[in-house]
Amino acid sequence: MSFIDLFAWIVLIVLVASTVAVLVFLAMLPGSIARRRNHPWAEAVNVAGWVTLFLGFALWPIALVWAYVDVPRAHEAHTNGGHSSEAGQP
User: Fold this and answer.
1) Staple 48 to which of 12, 59, 63, 90, CB 3.0 to 4.6 Å?
2) Which one-letter DSSP state was computed for residue 26?
């Protein structure tokens, strides 16, 4: 093997490793965002992010948006009587 062949193999290995690292980071991103925002379904968002890794990231934007959706918690809705607590609201 010449130096050029060895260099080509090294470049190929670095490219494959960096591609795998980016794919793993993107699969983890929705779940970590959901956990950081205390999403009530953070584990489901995490699973959705990893499932899209195997589906070619076709549904990954949906999992990412789901991580950012603010869902009212059940006990907050009951304590407010189902109404918002803004001034001017009856």
Assistant:
1) 63
2) H
**CA quadruple 29, 30, 33, 36: dihedral sign:** negative
Q: State the Cα–Cα distance between residues 15 and 63, nearest whole angstrom.
A: 27
Encode pLDDT of 5-63 as tens digits.
999 999 999 999 999 999 999 999 999 999 999 999 999 999 999 999 889 888 999 99
Asked if 43 and 6 touch (Cβ cutoff 8 Å), the reply is no
CB-based burial label for 35 (10 Å; 0-12, 13-18, 19+): middle
> pTM surpassing 0.70?
yes
